[in-house]
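Attaching the record inline, Q. Sequence:
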Amino acid sequence: SSDHIYDSLGQSLMLTAARGGGRAVARETGFKLGCWADWFTLDPKDVGLYAAHDHRWSDQWVFAQRRMGVNDVYIGGSRVIYEGRHPLEEEINRDYRAAITRLHERS
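Structure, as predicted:
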């Protein structure tokens, strides 16, 4: 039926990955008391997701997005990405550029 969650391949892939990830780290996952919870929100203003309806947003995000479209990311219940930005993003980018520059200087 069209309201079955597995009618969406993107949703099926995401749920299967989440379950497999929980098994891989030997943690019970989900939105239940005592469970480890990692999740993300998508940017509602992202035009790539505009036409997605119901659970089909996951198909749109997994298969059709050219940019990330991620708004917030939570790890263990704590927000680590806020409105698409990591608090250490500038430092990480600076360190990355410096490392790449050093590699190019050696070659």
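The radius of gyration is 18 Å. The chain has a mean pLDDT of 83.

More tomorrow.
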